[in-house]
Amino acid sequence: MKTRFTVLDIKAALAEIRDNLLHHYVLNIYDIDSKTYLLKLRKCASKHVLLFESGNRVHPTEMEWPKNTAPSGFSMKLRKHLKGKRLINATQLGFDRIIDLQFGTSACLDEFHLIIELYDRGNIILCDQEYTILNLLRARTDKTTDERFAVRESYPVGQAQPLKEPFLSTEELEENIKPPQIQGNKKKNKNLTIAKQLNSCLGYGTDLIEHFLIEEGLEVATASVSQDADEILECLQNCYEFLNSGKTKFQGFISTKTNDNVLQYVDYQPFLFNQSQLDSTIELEKFSLAVDKFYGEIQSQKAEQKMMQAEKSAMKKLENVKLDHMKRLESLKLAQADNVRKAQLIEMNLDLVDSALNQVRSAVASQIGWEEIEDFLEEGQDEGDPVSIAIRELKLKTNQIVMMLSEPMYDDSDSSSEEEENPSESEYTKSARVTEGSEIIIYIFLDLSLSAFGNAKAFYDSKRAAADKESKTIDASKKALKSAEKKTNESLKNIQTVRQVTKVRKQMWFEKFFWFISSENYLVIAGKDAQQNETIVKKYLKNGDVYVHADIHGASSCIVKNIDPSKPVSPVTLHEVGHAAVCHSAAWNAKVLTSAWWVHANQVSKTAPSGEYLSTGSFMIRGKKNYLPPSQLVLGFGFLFKLDDACVARHAGERKIKGLVNDVEEKEQSELGEIKEENENEPQLEGENDDDSEDSKSD
To answer: Full-prediction pTM beyond 0.90?
Structure first.
């Protein structure tokens, strides 16, 4: 996958920058990450964004890239020197992959140069008019020339390499292009094609050389100097002439491939190379659009992968919480069952347990040494004493003994099913059970200070304590799981709001105002404040348009854009615009029912009578005002869908003008007929002002 610009890409990108961005002013500078920056430019109503990434690319972009919330120190430095400056020139230093953007002019003593290096690790360097470095992305020292790139050092503009001339003879070609070296039975550089070797010598670009090699009828993989020298020389001459030409118009092409039914972008190019003719390609109008689409798709894929990983991590945390609570509850249930079983075994062997406890107590009371007691028990075991055999271990430090009690095993199937039902028994329970023949041997810890009944009661008490703990754990688990699920849902919502790279829709000129499209397809605009009222009247009110204003102080100025001045605006549209004018006036907040009036464009003037002054957003209305009926303070909203250019033809005629529809229902036709008759019978609108000579002021 292609990751950075070639020399040909730089040529195409600079051609677009010169055509579209020169003499634009810098509005602001943003950083996407530590290597990628956005330059926002403007000239009159034309707005553009230039994206540059250190070491990789420079191109105009139409995508909405996610910006850092706080600008970096390097962005602040660029803003300090470049904000408000004009982009004067964009050039390539020699034939190197270095772009020089000039801002301002030396005549005004505000000239600065932004140098973007697109080779190796790349760099972004801000210089003054004498190319003294003011700031840079990374300081370094060139290993070959020992040139230091740091603040207050001079940038070596004169060291840029020019475009190398092609080889002119077969001897020169053979001298520079050597066949791959052979070591033993393996080639050292078996993948080094003739195109790559030529690019390493001349730097024309591997793709461009391969393109002209195929044009000369050569196979890129098998072409050699010894057999195809003349064709290779012709190819190099074509490359040199193409790069040296003044071509300024480039299209954009994206090579794609399908992997597991997923379309993947592989490469972008300023024109379709011969080697890409058979590949699946996407053709775009401009090279910058291809680069934009290519990197935008990659960025979206990275964002999706990051989002999927974050979702997986959040769900895994929730599952771990649930699993932990399940394990706790399971261990408490097992502890209850184990305590009940031990208590029942003690009750089944009361005499044996009491005898064992009394025997050890009497020995301890006789002040016999612990080792002697153990020897005494071993002798009893050898003699077959059942009490001594039942005592398996003495734990006199903790005042306990370990007894071995047997539990009858009634059926193998029952025990196996029981083991299956309790597969997660504690290690202690498993180690305390030994199967011997038809019995299950269980080891039980007994307290010497208690009787057999006392020890059984202690196990029952432990069972009840475990049951209480289980109920409390269940209650706590519900709260903990609710809290964990809430946190997980919140994190998933935050993950889903991760911004992806999307194409910015170019806004229409009227979207900065209040606007709507009437039912008869008239565009209506209204000012949001006094300054916008001033703007729409001075700039957009033309002959044939209609000016509408609410009959209250502090209202928006509304304009109906009439494309055909020979036809008057119909009463239906005027009523809708009057309704909008009232709703966008002070009547909305005051909840006052009022009406609006309309006049023609030639009745609106900014010239005040002698001795009077018109403030911003106020105008003189000369002649008769045509009043409209009072309007209710009700507003609605709708959706407009932007169609692709390829889809416009399929939706032609869908938005039909109200009143001109032929195939409507009969009821609607009759209602429309009544409305038309009323409009024809009435020579002027209801509530018209009869005083034609009165001049009034609108604000």
So the answer is: no
Report CA torsion sign: 406, 407, 411, 417. Answer: negative
Residue 155 contacts residue 126 (beta carbons within 8 Å): no
In angstroms, the CA 627 to CA 625 distance is 6
pLDDT grade, residue 51 (50/70/90)?
very high
Averaged pLDDT for residues 211-220: 88
Q: Which token pair is 514? A: 């209040």
- CATH numbers and ranges of domains, the chain: 7-159 (2.30.310.10), 193-298 (no CATH), 318-409+432-501 (no CATH), 514-630 (no CATH)
Beta bridge partners of 600: 546
Pair 140, 76: CB distance under 8 Å: no
Q: In whole angstroms, what separates CA 135 from the centre of its chain?
A: 30
pLDDT at residue 592 above 50?
Answer: yes
Structure tokens at 683: 């020579």
Task: Tell me phi and psi for residue 216, to 5 degrees.
Answer: -85, 0
C-alpha distances (whole Å) from 228 to each of 217, 360, 585 are: 10, 105, 81
pLDDT score, position 500: 56
Residue that is written with structure tokens 């080779």 in the block: 119
User: In the predicted model, is pLDDT for residue 79 greater than 50?
Assistant: yes
The answer to whether 60 and 49 are in contact (CB under 8 A) is yes
Q: Are 675 and 570 in contact (CB under 8 A)?
A: no
pLDDT, tens only, 111-144: 999 999 999 899 999 999 999 999 999 999 988 8
* Total count of residues recorded for the chain: 699
Q: Side-chain half-sphere of 408: how many Cα atoms within 13 Å?
A: 4
Token couple for 355:
């005898």
The 10s digit of each residue's pLDDT in 648-683 is: 888 877 776 655 444 444 444 555 555 455 544 444
Residue environment code for 188-205, b if the CB has 16+ CB neighbours within 10 A, otherwise e? eeeeebbbebbbeebbbb
Question: What b/e readout covers 84-112, taking b as 16+ CB neighbours within 10 angstroms?
Answer: ebbbbebebbebbbbbbbbbbeeeeebbb
Burial class (CB in 10 A: 0-12, 13-18, 19+), 145: exposed
* CA torsion angle 394 395 400 403 (round to 10): -40
Q: From CA 301, how far away is CA 263, in angstroms rounded? A: 12
When pLDDT is averaged across residues 560-564 and rounded to a whole number, the result is: 89
Closest CA to 522 of 409, 399, 655: 655
| pLDDT, mean over the chain | 82
Give first-to-last CA distance, the chain, whole Å. Answer: 61
Q: By the 8 A CB rule, do 409 and 440 touch?
A: yes
User: How are beta strands 57-61 and 46-53 bridged, if at all?
Assistant: antiparallel
Judge contact between 50 and 39, C-beta under 8 A. yes
